[in-house]
Amino acid sequence: MNFTLHLTADCNFACRYCYETHSPARMSEETAINACRLLFSYGHKKNGFSLFGGEPLLCRGVIERVLGFCAEESAKIGGQMRYRMTTNGSLLDADFLRLASEHRIEIALSHDGPLQDDQRRTRGGAPTLGLLDEKVSMLLEAQPNAIAMLTLARENVGRLSEAVLWLYARGFSRVNCAIDYRPQTPWTEEDMALLAREYGVLAEFCAAHYDDPRPLRFLNFDAKIAAYIEGRPCMECRLGIKQPSVAPDGRIYPCNQFLNLPEYLMGDVMHGIDREAQKRIYYASLGEPESCRGCALNARCRNSCSCLNFSMTGDEHTVPPVQCAHERALIPAADRMAELLYTKKSPRFMRAYGGRLPAKAE
Ligand code: SF4
Ligand code: SF4
Ligand code: SF4
Questions:
Q1: Does residue 255's CB lie within 6 angstroms of at least one atom of ligand 1?
Q2: Which of 134, 219, 329, 350 is 20 to 30 A off residue 321, Cα-Cα?
Q3: Which ligand is nearest to the Cα of residue 13, counting in written order?
Q4: 106, 84 in Cβ contact below 8 A?
Q5: How far is the CA of 327 from the centre of ligand 3 (A)?
Q6: Is 227 within 8 Å of 233 (Cβ atoms)?
Q7: Complete domains list, the chain, with CATH
Q8: Which residue, 199, 151, 157, is CA-closest to 176?
Q9: What is the spatial distance between Cα 229 and Cα 361, in angstroms, rounded to a whole number?
Q10: What is the pTM of this model?
Q11: Distance between Cα 109 and ligand 2 center (Å)
């Protein structure tokens, strides 16, 4: 069982593209521990929390309480905990990294490489690239496979490959990119053409270095390639079931973008999940968006992310045009990478996928 704990909506950064509505609200220890109790009440041995913010490390005391409580409860049932945390990195230190390795917290660092100072500033407006330098070194030493989470602002679209390759050179082997999906960002066709070009550059680079001892894994491509070869959707949403979100006040919602919306409330940490509300929300989320019927990319598209659709269009089933255009830029680049790897019979690629390549690729 997995929950997302929204520890706070507060942050010590004020990134230009941030979509969060910041507030000083923080989850209390009592609420966090009740969330843990609820998690264990389902009787699963494998459990996990995604530690989410704002900036989750502003709530370090609560995190430490959660880790201690869950370690004890897990030990009683011979279970296993896993944690994920995305952080802006500013509050990382050696003690926390020790705790992270003891409790299996997989840390993803939000970092835009050379574009960092353009968008990612402290609340007081100070640049953050230099501030993070030592933190990046410490993180990569503790977790060499840590993911760099890059957010691409529209005005920097032509510099995506430069930013990803900068992060790779800095020591990150795994990079994920999200574009600025705020509804007010005016992405144009020209931007998307530039983005397609940038993805193309990265596809060539990833393919050329795929068999290196330390290849660049651009995770956006990995998901699309695996989905095609393994014949499965590139994401499985299961809204409200897979990863319910616990708000700072303990109320439970189906996912990140639905926090504090009364019509999406599905319980709280004291009383548990309201099964009827959960079922209603889950079933309402199913179904193919009308605009996607017949599209060849359907199974490999993130068109069914209710969060993204809802936050941009106000409707879970309406895919925003920018998402469609983005997928049409990304998927062909991933295919190009797979084609290059297949053509050169990359040993690593063939080991990973050789036995499962669809007949037409063979
Ligand atoms: S670090 Fe994250 S939560 Fe904080 S302002 Fe930046 S994007 Fe928003
Ligand atoms: S709504 Fe989107 S973010 Fe939430 S679980 Fe579904 S796919 Fe994931
Ligand atoms: S590419 Fe566009 S039309 Fe095709 S499945 Fe994705 S969102 Fe729908």
A1: no
A2: 219
A3: 1
A4: yes
A5: 7
A6: yes
A7: 2-180 (3.20.20.70)
A8: 151
A9: 9
A10: 0.94
A11: 20
